[in-house]
Amino acid sequence: MLLDVKDIHVHYGRLAALRGISISIEEGEIACIVGPNGAGKSTTLLAISAVLKPTEGAISFNGQALAGMSPEQVAEMGISQVPEGRHIFTALSVEENLHVGAAVRKDKDKIRKDFERVLETFPILAERRKQSAGKLSGGEQQMLAIGRSLMTSPRLMTIDEPSLGLAPKIVDRVYEVLVDLQRTRGLTLLIVEQSAERALKAADTIYVLRSGEIQLRGKAAELQDGKAVHQAYFGFSQPGKVEF
Amino acid sequence: MAYAIQVLIDALSLGSFYALAALGIGLLFGVLRLINFAHGDFITIGAYALIIPSAATQATLFIGDFAPIVLIPCIVAIVVIVALISEVTVFRPLRSASPATLMIGSFALGFILQNLIIMIYSGRPKAVGMWSDLSAGVKLMEGVEVPQLQLIIISATLIMLTSLVLFLKRTKYGIHMRAAAEDFRMARMLGVKANRVIMLAVAISGMLAAAVSMLFVVQTGILDFRMGLPLMLFAFIATVIGGMGSLVGAVVGGYTVGAVSILLQTFLPSEFRAFRDVFVFAFVIVILLLRPQGLVMSRSAKERV
Amino acid sequence: MQPKSAGAELLREFWPLIVLSIGLTLVVVVIQLIGDNITSRTLTEALIRMVVVVSLYIFIGNSGIISFGHIGFMMIGAYGTAWQTMDPMIKDIFIPGLPGFMLDYSSHWILATLAGGLLAALVALISGYALMRLSGIVASIGTFALFMSFYSFYLQWSTWTAGQSTLPNLPVTTTPWVGLAFSLVTMLVAFLYARSRFGLALRASREDEVAAKAAGVNVTFQRLIAFTISAFFCGMAGGLYGHFLGLLTVDTFYLPVTFITLAMLVVGGMQSLSGAVVGTLVISFLIEFLRKFEAGFDIGGVILDLPSSSAEVGLGLVLLLILIFRPAGLTRNAEFYWPWKPKVALATFSKRQS
């Protein structure tokens, strides 16, 4: 088990955002957390990245406990997040953005190789490498954010709502890239998605999060008819064929 | 024509002071969201470090007597150390506090530093004679003679600005610093070491303060525990009209304020000249009313609604 | 313990004000009874500062904007008052630049103080019209610039202010009781303002400027109201101060006073009236205590004395410690409601940081 999140609680002041979440992810799989707005999906990723500290429970990665670590240390361990809204450094060029991704690494040659590889995977970035990152379109920024995250040479990449604000065709492309990363590089992915449909298509394992609690956990293959997911997502079941 | 050149050199020289000071402020604001009310006192400390602690009104040079090649690194080191200590003892504990709290904290720090100076050196202003041969004139062209010092100030500033730009654009840490200034949390999530970047920014801010202090002492020849205040105020103003969060803006603001100041001094009728500063402030208020985001637009300064 | 009658309801609403007023009066009475001339003077100075700090609360507490400029208003009020109460002959010698009618004019110190306050308020109204459009840190820098410009202006304006010299021979009319009276009035106004819909609107802008604007609050206007009212009382405090010292120098109204009054408010709790009062008393006491150390303490034959300016350094350290460990101040930004249960309207209640 690569990532083991055990029964964590996260509070914003007195408000409980997560009430006992447990997630376990195997190396090389794509796991998806789906759920409505305000469910606590982003909070979960932020807790994993150590931006938020759980008030209870424990997270361990590759057997090592993440308690008390800073976000920088978690990045060093091999967990990299592509946050909601991308958070591109608009004051920097595309190239510079990618180089910031290499902050955790010291091996100059490998860094250069990975840099070339990212540019290969995302030709649009190669084209615009000297341009200011603020000038990229939404989809291009998403590619840049993923590429930047790849530069950290992660073992686990967490992605928060990759479809946010993007046209469906672009989202298709993003998911193509993500699945490809898993296939060709063996990258483990934890994706947070609002769209259950996308999650069911792309993931190996699905978690449904609602109101700070995991309502359902299962293999995507077994949940394809969507009924159980719908029930867990909305809290009521829909008769007949499920469409999200 | 000759007169115009004199005025121009004056404006550039004064503007350089303000630009350097504004840069020191702007750097810390960019990375830390901190308006450093102690920056003026960092400058003051750099200046007082040149003399032997005493209550005398004619100061005896201490470090100020060393050869420039030793003097400059010494003063820079002293100010940088004070700045780094401030970061660790004051700014870091307040890291997660509101910008207002940070500001008051730096205000308290400045107050403490000022009074420590009074404690060690007494509150009386002192005269300092250092490098006085620099005020000798240099003939630029027919009818135009400017003090060497002004040319040195302008060129030193240009060199420092260029170095800073190269650092920020070409080096790994410079890029990290720019990233952290825009989105601190994201930079951390990518593994950029927060504290290291901040210490670096603080150190550079200290270097800039040290530069201002040395140039200022040579130019005015007076030490006063409050000497940093007007400089700091003009630095704030330069940063604000240049656009908060923009280093280019800070520099532009600095030269603008310098230019306005000199122009007012040159063209104001003599009864009003003593009130020059008041007019500078009025000018700033007008700028802020017309263009509250500052002269140079900065993406990072925009607030997301 | 929930009140039932209208009278009890009123009592509960005004409880913090009542407690603070009675408490302060008691403090003054006690110190006057057991103290000597020196303690009396210290007390008067503290009460004058109290007026300033409560004025600071009116603006800073409700708007959330740190103002470094209010001591400038104190100065304007001080000189404004002095211009009215000074002996015409002395005015002629020291500040001959005053317009003719002012040179001859003389009035009772109470009227003069009120007029001084009004002058400060007028200046605040005019300068605030420009400044209050700014927000947050930029606004604070604006107040700092305003302060420095007032200071440098008055320093240069020697025909009206005696510039770098001292303006002497002001009638000494400020006693501790005068200080107390003005403090109580300022506290009453501060309390009523905070309770009013103006105070509420301003506090809304403090919490979330965008949301307040969206709710129809004219933020600039509300800030201007608080700015002007606070300048009025600050100005009067200045008048009181001049007539406490018996003389005036522009230099008095510079950084140390700015720092001390701001520290008093922050240490007490920026967002509460109780904080302003408590902070003033605590810091005044602390400063006196540290000054005694500076003068030298004889403890069983061993002289313990600190270098001068230690009190200031100590004050700075105290402020830093409060900012780090208790940023909402000693009162935690809450008003003093015990034994009643507090109403939410007046205090930001939920232990938030300042």
Short description:
The complex is a heterotrimer of chains A (244), B (305) and C (354). Chain A is α/β, with parallel strands linked by helices and 244 residues long. Chain A is built from 9 helices and 10 strands.
Give your account of this protein's structure:
The complex is a heterotrimer of chains A (244), B (305) and C (354). Chain A is an alpha/beta fold. Chain A has 9 helices and 10 strands. Helices cover 36% and strands 25% of the residues of chain A. In chain A, strands 6-7-8-3-9-10 form a 6-stranded mixed sheet, with helices on both faces. In chain A, strands 2-1-4-5 form a 4-stranded antiparallel sheet, with helices on one face. In chain A, strand 4 and strand 5 (64-65) form a beta hairpin. The longest helix of chain A is centred in the last third of the chain and has 18 residues, at 168-185. By secondary structure, chain B is mainly alpha-helical. In chain B, 68% of the residues lie in helices and 4% in strands. In chain C, 70% of the residues lie in helices and 2% in strands. Chain C contains 15 helices and 2 strands. A two-stranded antiparallel sheet of chain C has the order 1-2. In chain C, a hairpin with a 2-residue loop joins strand 1 (297-299) and strand 2 (302-304). In chain C, helix 2 (37-63) packs parallel to helix 9, helix 2 (37-63) runs antiparallel to helix 12 (219-245) and helix 14 packs antiparallel against helix 15 (310-325). Chains in contact: A-B, B-C.
Architecture blueprint of SSEs:
The complex is a heterotrimer of chains A (244), B (305) and C (354).
Chain A: E1 3-12, E2 15-25, E3 30-34, H1 41-48, E4 56-61, E5 64-65, H2 71-77, E6 79-82, H3 94-101, H4 108-121, H5 123-127, H6 138-150, E7 156-160, H7 168-185, E8 188-193, H8 196-202, E9 205-210, E10 213-219, H9 227-234
Parallel strand pairs in A: 3-8, 3-9, 6-7, 7-8
Antiparallel strand pairs in A: 1-2, 1-4, 4-5, 9-10
Helix pairs in contact in A: 3-6
Chain B: H1 2-32, H2 39-48, H3 68-91, H4 99-121, E1 126-127, E2 137-141, E3 144-147, H5 148-170, H6 172-182, H7 184-189, H8 194-220, E4 222-223, H9 228-242, H10 247-267, H11 276-290
Antiparallel strand pairs in B: 1-4, 2-3
Helix pairs in contact in B: 1-5, 1-6, 1-8, 1-9, 1-10, 2-3, 2-4, 2-8, 2-9, 3-8, 5-6, 5-8, 6-8, 9-10, 10-11
Chain C: H1 6-34, H2 37-63, H3 70-85, H4 88-94, H5 100-104, H6 109-131, H7 136-156, H8 158-161, H9 176-195, H10 197-207, H11 209-214, H12 219-245, H13 255-268, H14 273-295, E1 297-299, E2 302-304, H15 310-325
Antiparallel strand pairs in C: 1-2
Helix pairs in contact in C: 1-9, 2-9, 2-12, 2-13, 2-14, 3-6, 3-7, 3-12, 6-12, 10-12, 13-14, 13-15, 14-15
